[in-house]
Amino acid sequence: MAGRTTASIDLDHERKPLRDLLRATVDAVREKTDCAFCSVGARLVEVVQDRIANFDATAARQAADLAAALKLKGRPRDSRDTMIAGIVLASHATLATHNIRHFDDIAKSVVNPWESD
Question: Which of 5, 19, 98, 114 could crosslink 32 through cysteines, CB 3.0-4.6 Å?
Fold first, then answer.
């Protein structure tokens, strides 16, 4: 199609953290076009690059331990929530979520920013 620009990026999700994928997207678009998205995308990368926690081997071990403990208690959890909990535990981070009851097993690491004290 005339006038359309396409950008290709490597989407190997298993080897690249999200911040690298964001940066690759911005770089690919920047190479092909001069557009408003480039500055917005660059700013997005700048803002989130150090705030994205990866689901790495440590997080996977934490998630597996948590899933096993919950299964023994007869309280299995959605695998996506278990993976998020694994990331929080491995990163020693605090999770901000509206669904705090989904993460009651890691209560010390969970806050609801929409709830007043």
Answer: 5
